[in-house]
């Protein structure tokens, strides 16, 4: 099982944690949302909890709840800027379909 970060994503995580002045990792989750069923959730984590799985890539860390790892296993996370917009972008091999706006997705069964 693995989740990897591009160098840009790792730098962004390190930058945001430094700006916050605390934290150990980006906390990544999956929540029910949108027209296709699921969406990613992001937060910064101050601790690694007992039911968390920790991934490290390019000197940055990502935390995922163990029961959600199978939904994003094999994903690569990038950080992209398009004009004034910036966001984390996923390459997730477990996605079956995305909605028209790109905010939600369905998973392969």
TrEMBL record:
Give the transmembrane region(s).
none
The protein's GO terms of the molecular function aspect are: 2 iron, 2 sulfur cluster binding
Name of the protein: Iron-sulfur cluster assembly accessory protein
Could you say which protein family the record assigns here?
A: Belongs to the HesB/IscA family.
Q: Which residues form the Core domain?
A: 1-103
Q: Which InterPro entries match?
A: ATAP (IPR016092), ATAP_core_dom (IPR000361), Fe-S_cluster_asmbl/transfer (IPR050322), FeS_cluster_insertion_CS (IPR017870), HesB-like_dom_sf (IPR035903)
Annotated Gene Ontology cellular component terms: cytosol
PROSITE patterns for the chain: HESB
Which GO BP terms sit in this record? Answer: iron-sulfur cluster assembly
């Amino acid at each position: 099982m693995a989740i990897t970060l591009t160098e840009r994503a790792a730098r962004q995580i390190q930058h945001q944690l430094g700006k916050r002045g605390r934290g150990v990792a980006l906390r990544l989750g999956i929540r029910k949302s949108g027209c296709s069923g699921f969406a990613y959730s992001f937060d910064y984590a101050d601790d690694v909890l007992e039911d968390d799985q920790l991934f490290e890539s390019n000197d940055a860390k990502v935390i995922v709840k163990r029961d959600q790892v199978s939904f994003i296993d094999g994903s690569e996370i990038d950080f992209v800027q398009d004009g004034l917009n910036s966001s984390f972008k996923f390459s997730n091999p477990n996605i079956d379909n995305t909605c028209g706006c790109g905010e939600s997705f369905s998973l392969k069964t």
